[in-house]
Design brief:
The protein has a single domain (5-339), classed as 2-Layer Sandwich (D-amino Acid Aminotransferase, Chain A, domain 1), CATH 3.30.470.20. It is 34% helix and 22% strand. It is built from nine helices and 15 strands. The model has no long low-confidence stretch (mean pLDDT 94).
């Protein structure tokens, strides 16, 4: 698992009822699907919790159903709106759905068994990805041609492409090596949830997050959502519009987890290449656990890099929610430090 959130259950979901629980956002981080890295970024968890809560409240105002129930005050108690939190929250109260086991042999996953166990109250085993920009190096350039998306290019240009209409794609969520899907396979994996409805929800989430980013002086480049299906309705789950789930930029500089990814590429290329090789070898052998094939481990970040990353998350969250939740430098200063890495 690569999640950097802890999961708490108060009441488990049943076949016909949602449960209740919460996410506890840690200061862990994950890059290249590695899982927990050997160090932490202070205030990262609270930054993501705050941004996620802010976006869920925007979505609810826009009429988009979600699993969000509020943030939990630092001393515990009933969940409250983000505006009522006196300190940056680290815990988010949510409704719970069923998440059955996904049986598999090697890389052959049994989605029929998943849905037989799930009924009509389940987490859709997909990630729905939306892209407002296609940067140089995007996997989309390797997998598709511009014409596939109605773009008037014979081939992808050397510079980033800004899109008038977002591209929406579907990828697997629970497979060890996630893969992008054509629409027919995504529809099969989604079960009772319609891919047309999932796409419509993703586009509305993208609209809400993009508009808020514009107001905050940020550019929203891409992101993803996860959804649950309950009582015939699709609801947005997990967490939305944070610097881990989405890519934002500020005056051309990334303000997302991509900063840390790129830093590892520059400073720990042996590990990055070993990860890539392990994933390829796992695919050749048809085994799910690629990490067991990786003989190089990541090294901790230098303290000054951790400080830069902390300020980026905190300053970015302040800008996005329009409130000085964190003691952090202005976003201009945090971005300047990133550019000097």
């Amino acid at each position: 698992m690569t999640s950097v959130k802890e999961f708490r259950i108060e009441a488990a979901a049943t076949e016909d009822e949602l449960g209740r629980g919460s996410f506890l956002f840690t200061d862990d981080y994950s890059v290249f699907d590695w899982g927990k890295m050997p160090d932490e970024i202070p205030d990262k968890g609270a930054s993501l919790c705050s941004m996620g809560a802010y976006n869920f409240e925007l979505l609810e105002d826009a009429g988009v159903p979600t699993h969000y129930r509020g943030v939990v005050p630092a001393g515990g108690g009933d969940p409250v709106a983000l505006a009522e939190a006196t300190v940056p929250p680290r815990e988010m109260a949510i409704d719970l759905t069923q998440v059955p086991d996904l049986p598999h042999e090697g890389r052959d996953y049994d989605y029929d068994a998943y849905h037989d166990a799930a009924g009509e109250n389940y987490l859709v085993p997909l990630e729905i990805v939306f892209r407002n920009r296609v940067p140089v190096g995007s996997s989309l350039r390797r997998r598709t041609d511009p014409a596939d998306h109605g773009l008037n290019f014979d081939e992808w240009p050397d510079e980033a492409v800004d899109l008038d209409d977002a591209i929406v794609e579907f990828s697997t969520k629970y497979e060890e090596g996630d893969r992008y899907l054509d629409r027919a396979e995504a529809d099969r994996i989604a079960g009772a949830a319609s891919v047309d409805d999932l796409e419509a929800v993703a586009r509305e989430v993208n609209r809400v997050v993009t508009e808020r980013a514009d107001e905050a002086g940020l550019t929203h480049e891409d992101g993803k959502i996860e959804c649950l299906y309950f009582d015939g309705e699709i609801r947005v789950g997990d967490v939305v519009g944070t610097f881990d789930e989405n890519r934002f930029s500020y005056e051309g500089t990334q303000i997302s987890k991509e900063v840390i990814r790129q830093y590892h590429k520059r400073t720990q290329p042996e590990w990055v290449e070993a990860v890539k090789a392990a994933k390829e070898e796992a695919e050749r052998r048809d085994v799910a656990d690629w990490r067991s094939l990786c003989d190089v481990r990541p090294e901790p970040l230098d303290d000054d890099v951790v400080d830069v990353a902390r300020d980026l998350y905190a300053a970015g969250a302040n800008a996005y929610v329009g409130r000085e939740l964190f003691d952090a430098p202005p976003l201009d200063s945090a971005i300047g430090a990133v550019r000097r890495l």
